[in-house]
Structures are given as structure tokens and as C-alpha cells.
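Open question from group meeting: does this chain pack into something compact, or does most of it stay loose? Before anyone orders reagents, we agreed to write out a predicted structure and look at it together. Recording both the input and the output here so the notebook holds the full record.
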Amino acid sequence: MKLVSWNVNGIRAIMKKDFAGSVASLDADVLCLQETKANTEQVKIALELVDGYHVCANASKARQGYSGTAILSKKTPISVTYDMGIETHDQEGRVIAAEFDDYFVVTAYVPNSGNELVRLDYRAQWDVDFLNYLRTLEKVKPVVVCGDFNVAHQPIDIARPKANYNKSAGYTQKEIDGFSRFLDHGFIDTFRNKYPDEVKYSWWSYRAGARQKNIGWRIDYFLVSAALLPRVNDAFIFNEFMGSDHCPLGIEL
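C-alpha cells returned:
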């Protein structure tokens, strides 16, 4: 099984950049998308050129064309649930859980703390509640959770750690601690587990040629329940795929 995650930064925009060709090349059994920036019907229309997948999508209720997630799977899931069941967090279409035979696949677009960290406290509470949500799923079966977590966890995960620490959204101690709690409760960062010393990023600012200079951040992750770790054959970050300010990443089970 090949599972892939990609923050597409607008499903309608990326479809104009040969996204269908990229999906064919990736050949994922399950493809999780974040920041689709479209309602459910618009997502499905945009993906009409992508063949062979069952599509489920979640859209922002609070703001049109904002946030949003989707899961595409070659096999129809046993069940699909949307959001966490917490009204405060369920307005922006940020979570989908698809149940398969042996595990849940959860995709998430974790809130950004925003300019001047105006949403940092909300983001910190989101991390706590999302972890509790995942642990509830784990009582049923193991969990694969992927997506844009909007945090660089360690200095190796960000090109300029000193310049950004406690100043920039995505690299404050509060956000780092929030991510650490997922690992403390048994979830495994698959890429860092397989490649403890490799410097590789998943997001680059559109400013100042950051991608060409590889001034990036690793803020997209695949985490798995500890019970699934023996089944993780490999973890990937596909820097060569263009079309978004993020690149896709994946695991092979």
C-alpha cells in the first residue's frame, strides 16, 4: 500500500498544472489532500480528470474557498467521518477519517498560527483536541495520520531555525511542544524514523526564490500508531513534484 499526502494550495489551481499527471505518476492507493480551497462539489468536479479513485471531501463552512481536505482512495473505505465532533474546530473542513480493514487514515490541515501569532492559543488547543480525537480512534484500530501540521518539529526540519524560533508561525515552542505530544503518546514520525539525519523539506515560501535555494520547512508529516511501525517499509518526500508551495510525501506499508 502506498499512501501519499499533498497540500495542493487550491485544487482548482493545481489541476491547471498537470495535477492529473502527477497523480498518475505517484500511483498512490490512498491520496490525502489539504487546502483544497473549494466546496465538496467543486472538489469532485475538479478531480473529474483523475481516474480510478473514490473521492471524499470536506469543505470550510465558515469561509468559502478556504482550507478544506479530501481523501482519494482506490478502494472504497468501510466508513468516512468528517471533523472531530467539536463545534469550535469543525467550521473549516480540516479533518477527514477514512476507515479501512486494518487502520484508519486521517488527513488533517492543522490551523496556522497566523501573522503575529494571533491564532497561536487556538492552534495550541486544536493540537490537544486533535490528539484526543486520534487516541479515541486508536481504541478501535491503529491510525495513519497525515497532512500539513504547520510546524517544523526540530532544527533539522527548517532551513533557518534561529531566525524563526518563537517569531514565526510554525516554529514557536508552543507549536513544537504540541507536536511532541503526538510522539509522546506513541505516534511515530515515519520520515524521521527512517531518515534521522536527512535534511529534506516539504514547504517553501513563494518569496525570494526560496524553493530554488531550498530555503524550506518540513511541516508535512505521516505519523503512524506504534502498532503499524513494523509495516512501514519506507517513507518519502517527493521534492521533484511541482504545482504547489508544498510537495507531496508518502509512506509504503
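Observations to bring back to the group:
The chain has a mean pLDDT of 97.
The longest strand covers residues 2-7.
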